[in-house]
Each structure stands twice: as structure tokens, then as C-alpha cells.
Write a structure and sequence with these properties.
Blueprint lengths: L12 E2 L4 E2 L3 E3 L12 H14 L4 E7 L17 H16 L4 E5 L12 E2 L13 E2 L2 H20 L4 E6 L4 H6 L14 H4 L1 H14 L4 E9 L8 H14 L3 E6 L19 H5 L9 E3 L6 H9 L5 E4 L1 H5 L3 H6 L17 H4 L29 E5 L3 H12 L3 E6 L8 H4 L8 H14 L3 E4 L13 E4 L3 E3 L12 E3 H6 L7 E5 L3 H10 L7 H7 L23 E5 L15 H10 L3 E3 L2 E7 L2 E6 L2 E5 L3 E4 L3 E3 L4 H6 L4 E3 L11 H14 L1
Parallel strand pairs: 3-4, 3-12, 4-5, 5-8, 6-7, 8-9, 9-10, 10-11, 11-12, 13-14, 13-16, 14-15, 16-27, 18-25, 19-20, 19-25, 20-21
Antiparallel strand pairs: 1-2, 17-26, 22-23, 23-24
Helix pairs in contact: 1-2, 3-6, 6-7, 13-15, 13-21, 17-19
Length: 670
């Protein structure tokens, strides 16, 4: 074992009064367990698994210091001795595994989804229903005292520290920026007055908890909103926070209301480390950088080039609790990599569901979705080696079943092989790599290039059909015209299309294809930042500047039959990004479309009672999928135990989150 593979990442960090075992911070992420029944037991198992996996310092999801600071009326609050006692099970579990854990204290301010919202000023946020009440001086002081009391209780609960959430546009951030602070008293007006709230808060917390307790301050270093902070202001606040008693400064990127992607899979890896680097020479306390760091080599490079002292990863620890241990053992290729999709984590949290992970459905279900060793070594055949088939095969093999995995193509991965070719979805390649490794390690017998027949499955105890989907061909007159191509053929065979393209179907696949067809060539990180109007000097307020947008040379029409919004694609937290990209590139979005016919002139359509001819070179079909399942009836007639999962069961919109979870749950039950 070579434990020097990532020397900077795995180096201890001395904080003076305590030492962290490495430079890895598990960033704060709400899981939904904070409010659920038996939530603390489940949280204890969740965080303990990450501590066992080697994380240097864990930060919990956000807890409010008082009622008005809750995100939702029923959101988690940490303000009583009873709460402190309830949290003991979590801190004990982490300490038993040799880890350290800090409690994040988060006051929602104007982001609160209830009528008791308060903020620096009575200015409604563009993403909230309620206009907050402007806080009185008395309320401000009481709120500071609430934070102080919560920090003191966190210490009693066994936490090693607290993180004060001063970024992402929450209350502390709302005081700092002109955008949301229009006060004229000592808490507003000049920058010195606007930063009084965070500084008084830190000083009061430090005075109460003593010198040997970690205080992390999550500082918004790049607001990405109008009337945000400039670089000079961020540096000034950072220095004053250090003097006030902060132990570690963590980077925050972008307010929740910012219209720029910061963590979605389209964002290049480590796209914002340059922001943290700007502070490196200005303060002497450790700096943490964050956002789209998902593999040890990326983290090592950041630390080796002195851009930061620690790296924060949140979603990568949903994907793989053993991330750090695998890095220590020089087994990076065994890491289940976060693909930045947000589909099972943030998308769940924003609609009040429990978080999990598309590539690891056991995340946040450690006590429920358990793969117990099988009493007997039964034989299982799995037909189809897409995401559903691979996940089922690995989980069944982990339980001790003898597994044969059949795939008619000569490669593994199914639809993920198409997804990874979409610009911004290259990370899907990592999931195929991970499952391929696990199939080898768990002893699954993989049979590629073989379309298995029903008769060959006679001797198995269980048969799982996971044969996936094929494109649906709509019944439009002229559909067999040579201009027409389905999305699978287009992506798989890398077909070159003309300059004018119609895309039929505006679900997730139609959006992806339209993005691919309008993608600029050879875009590096600087191009990406410029494309989204991010000012690398952070001289403009919020790090934004007016910019010329890239418009594609290719004209694309993206259409759907149903009326309403077009181009959002799946995902609550990422849908707006897809739509904005398409609009920036000049894609014409049409809804309520009837497809009349296809001929040499092009695509004849009717929109809002008006006939149109789109004179296009090509037409790409993204009009849904149909199942390619043909075996189950024959197998049932042979009295075999058959399970149909994934796209073979429900073709619909391709949903990797659903099919991988379904596969693991089936394997757990067999």
C-alpha cells in the first residue's frame, strides 16, 4: 500500500488546540433525516459511515438557532437542552469511529418559507413566497444570543465545533450585501455597518464557547448576484473574521437566487478554486475550497498548488462513504464517483423528501437498505447490463448470490454510454467505470455480446429482466424520411447533422440533444466562466459583469406536443440551467405543437392554429421510449421466478435514479 499517493490531501491539519486527521471536510448538506421519525438514529449511522471512511471533519446539515430562522415551519431547530441530548447519539457515533463533527447553524432570513420570516430589510427574495419583516435592533441582538446559545449547546452535545452559515444568501449574507440590506442604522449603510452582524456574532460565540472549540465561518466569496460583495470587501471581512476568532474559513459560492450554475454536473470540476486562492495570502487561518471536487487527484492538485488548505466535498460522500479510505489505500478507481446530477439529493430536499444518491441508493438509508449475507448461494441471471442490471448484479453478488449478467451488446452501461457523450454529462463515464470494477471484484460472471434466449435461463433460481428501452417512433407521415434520425443512433454513431435541426420531444433527452447540437467547440474553464458572465477579478459587485453571449451557428428547434414550458428537463435544481443554456444559444422552444408531416421541404407543424414549415436538414426523434422486454412471458410459462425492472418495466422518461434504486432494493429482498 502506498499511503503517499495524495500526500497533501492526507496530511493532518493542526488547528492549535486540536488536529484533523486529513484535509477533507465533508461539507454541510441537509438530508431530511434531521426532521424525520427515528432521524437521529439514522443520522448517526449515516455520519458514522463517513467517519469510518476517513473524513477529517464532518459538518452537519443546517439547524436553525431559533424558530424564525427555520427554512420551513417544521425544519430542524437546535436551541434546547433536549435537542442537545438528542444529538448525542450522532456525535458519539462519529467519535467512536475516530472522526470529528461540527454542527452547522443556519438562519434562513428572507429565504424562510413561512410568514414569520425576518431579515436585515423587508425585501422579498425572488425565490420566496413571503416578504420578511425588517429586524429591530432588539431582534438582531436576540438573534445573536440565539446563535451563541446554540453554539454552547452544540458543545454540550459533544460537537467539536460549529459552522456559521454566512453564505448562499442566508440571513448573515443578507446583512452583508447591499442587495438585501437597505438599513440606515448601525447595522446598515456603509460596508463597516453591514458586516457588524457577522463580526458581533463570531465574537459573541467565541467568548461563550472558549478557545478550544472549532468555529468555521462559511464566507460568501463570490455572490453571483447584483449588488453582491467585491473582492476588496470579501478580503476585508475575512481578515476581521480571523481577528474575531474564526478557526477555519469555508468558501461559499453563489446565492440560491443566483442564475448561474455552481454545483450541477455542467460545472467543470473544481471550477471555483481560484476564488478561494485569492484569499490565501490575505489570512493565516485555514481556508476551505469547494464545489465540484469529486476525485482525490482533483483535491490533491488544489492543495499541492496552494489554492486552499482543505477541500470540502458534500455530495461525493453521499456517493461513497469510503472515499478517503480508498484514497489512502491508493484505490481511487474503486471510488463511486459523484456525477453532480442532484437528482436524488438536492432535488429531494427541495421538495421535502429524504436525500439519497443516484449512484448509491444506500446513502441516508444505512439502517434500512441493508445487503445482508444470503443464507443460501442461489443462482441468479440478470438480462441487460445497463444501470439497473449492473446495480442489481453487484448488490446480489455482495449478498453472496452466484450471478450471471447477460448483455447483448459488447459493452456495459446501457443508456449511460449515451449520457456520457452529452456535454456536461461526461461524469456518467465514472459510474460505468465504478460498476465495471465492482462486477469484477464481486465475482459476477459477465457475458457480453450475447442475446440470451429463454431456454438458456432454465436452471436459475431467479431471473431479473433489465433490458432497458429503445426510442419510440411517433406515427408522423413521412417518418421514414432519410432526414429523420433517433437520438440513440445520433449519439451512438456520432452522426454529423446539418446546420438546421428540429428536435421532436422536449423531455430530458430532447434537452440534452439540443444542448449537444449547440455546444461550442473546445470550451475550457475560462470560456465557461465568461459564458456565464463571471468576473474572475471579482472587481464588479457579486463577481458579475455584462458579457456577450455565445450564440450557436446551428439553428435548432426544440418542440413538444403538450402546452406549457419547454426545455427545462428533469430536476428541480437543474431544470432552469438547461432552459437558460438553450435560450442563450438561440434554440427556438415551441410547445403545443402538432406534427403534420415530413417531406423534402422539411417538418410541417401546426402551432396555435398556425401552419409552419421548418426547412430543416435533419429531424431528431426524442419522443420517449418503449420497452425492449420480450422474455418475461416465456419465462413465467416455464415457471421461473421473474422480476422485471428499470426501463424494461416502465419505459417513460429515462430515470437512472429510479432504476438503480429499484435494482438494489430487489437484490436486498431476494
Amino acid at each position: 500500500m502506498d499511503d503517499k499517493s495524495y500526500p497533501h490531501l492526507l496530511a493532518p491539519l493542526d488547528l492549535g488546540f486540536t488536529q484533523l486527521r486529513n484535509r477533507v471536510l465533508m461539507g454541510s448538506m441537509h438530508t431530511g433525516l434531521e426532521e424525520s421519525r427515528d432521524g437521529f438514529k439514522k443520522m448517526a449511522a449515516f455520519y458514522a459511515a463517513r467517519a469510518r471512511g476517513g473524513v477529517g471533519l464532518i459538518v452537519t446539515g443546517g439547524f436553525s438557532p431559533n424558530f424564525r430562522g427555520r427554512l420551513h415551519p417544521l425544519s430542524a431547530e437546535f436551541s434546547t437542552a433536549r435537542a442537545a441530548r438528542a444529538h448525542r447519539v450522532v456525535t458519539d457515533a462519529v467519535h467512536d469511529e475516530g472522526g470529528k463533527i461540527a454542527l452547522q447553524l443556519l438562519h434562513a432570513g428572507r429565504y424562510a418559507m413561512h410568514p414569520f420570516a425576518v431579515s436585515a430589510s423587508a425585501i422579498k427574495s425572488p425565490i420566496s413566497k413571503y416578504t420578511p419583516t425588517e429586524m429591530s435592533t432588539r431582534q438582531i441582538k436576540k438573534t445573536i444570543e440565539a446563535f451563541v446559545k446554540s453554539a454552547e449547546l452544540a458543545r454540550e452535545a459533544g460537537y467539536d465545533g460549529v459552522e456559521l452559515m454566512g453564505s448562499e444568501g442566508y440571513l448573515i449574507n443578507q446583512f452583508i450585501c447591499k442587495r438585501s440590506n437597505h438599513r440606515y442604522d448601525e447595522w446598515g449603510g456603509s460596508y463597516e455597518n453591514r458586516i457588524r452582524f457577522p463580526l458581533e456574532l463570531v465574537k459573541a460565540v467565541r467568548a461563550r464557547v472558549g478557545r478550544d472549540f472549532i468555529i468555521i465561518f462559511r464566507l460568501s466569496m463570490l455572490d453571483l448576484v447584483e449588488q453582491g460583495s467585491t473582492k476588496e470587501e470579501v478580503v476585508q471581512l475575512a481578515k476581521l473574521l480571523e481577528q474575531a476568532g474564526v478557526t477555519i474559513l469555508n468558501t461559499g459560492i453563489g446565492w440560491h437566487e443566483a442564475r448561474i450554475p455552481t454545483i450541477a454536473t455542467q460545472v467543470p470540476r473544481a471550477a471555483f478554486t481560484w476564488v478561494t486562492e485569492k484569499l490565501k495570502s490575505e489570512v493565516s487561518i485555514p481556508l476551505v475550497t469547494c464545489n465540484r471536487i469529486n476525485m482525490p487527484d482533483v483535491a490533491e492538485q488544489i492543495l499541492a498548488t496552494n489554492q486552499a488548505d482543505m477541500v470540502s466535498m458534500a455530495r461525493p460522500f453521499l456517493a461513497d462513504p469510503d472515499f478517503v479510505r480508498k484514497a489512502e489505500e491508493n484505490r481511487a478507481e474503486d471510488i463511486n464517483t459523484c456525477i453532480g446530477c442532484n437528482q436524488a439529493c438536492l432535488d429531494h430536499i427541495f421538495v421535502g423528501k429524504r436525500a439519497s444518491c443516484l449512484v448509491n441508493p444506500q446513502a441516508c438509508y444505512e439502517t434500512e437498505l441493508v445487503l445482508t449475507p444470503s443464507a443460501s448461494q442461489r443462482k441468479i441471471a440478470i438480462v441487460g447490463a445497463g444501470p439497473a442490471g449492473m446495480a442489481t448484479a453487484v448488490a446480489a453478488a455482495e449478498r453472496g448470490f452466484q450471478v450471471d449478467l447477460y448483455e447483448k451488446n459488447d459493452y456495459l452501461g446501457g443508456q449511460f454510454n449515451l449520457a456520457m457523450q452529452i456535454p456536461g454529462k461526461e461524469e456518467f463515464r465514472e459510474t460505468i467505470r465504478y460498476f465495471t470494477r465492482r462486477l469484477e471484484q464481486t465475482g459476477v460472471n459477465v457475458i457480453l455480446g450475447h442475446a440470451v434466449q429463454a431456454e438458456e435461463l432454465q436452471g436459475y433460481d431467479e431471473v431479473v429482466i433489465a433490458t432497458g428501452v429503445k426510442p419510440r417512433i411517433p406515427g408522423i407521415p413521412g417518418i421514414d424520411n432519410e432526414k429523420v434520425i433517433d437520438y440513440q443512433t445520433l449519439i451512438r454513431d456520432k452522426v454529423q447533422l446539418g446546420q438546421r435541426v428540429a428536435v421532436i420531444g422536449a423531455g430530458g433527452i430532447g434537452v440534452d440533444v439540443s444542448t449537444m447540437l449547440t455546444e461550442p467547440e473546445h470550451q475550457d474553464l475560462d470560456d465557461w466562466l465568461k459564458d456565464w458572465g463571471i468576473d474572475k477579478s471579482i472587481e464588479h459587485a457579486g463577481g458579475l459583469y455584462p458579457y456577450s453571449e455565445y450564440v450557436s451557428q446551428r439553428q435548432v428547434w426544440l418542440m413538444q406536443r403538450r402546452p406549457g414550458k419547454v426545455g427545462r428537463g428533469p430536476g428541480k435544481t437543474t431544470g432552469w440551467i438547461h432552459k437558460k443554456v438553450l435560450e442563450k444559444r438561440g434554440v427556438e422552444l415551441l410547445s403545443g405543437v402538432s406534427y403534420d408531416k415530413i417531406d423534402e421541404q422539411g417538418l410541417h407543424i401546426t402551432v396555435e392554429g398556425q401552419s409552419r414549415i421548418l426547412e430543416v436538414d435533419n429531424i431528431v426523434l426524442c419522443a420517449g421510449q418503449t420497452s425492449v422486454e420480450e422474455l418475461s412471458e416465456k419465462l413465467q410459462a416455464m415457471n421461473l421466478s421473474v422480476h422485471v425492472i428499470g426501463g424494461a418495466e416502465v419505459a417513460g422518461e429515462v430515470d437512472a435514479k429510479r432504476v438503480i434504486r429499484q435494482g438494489v432494493e430487489l437484490a436486498a429482498k431476494l
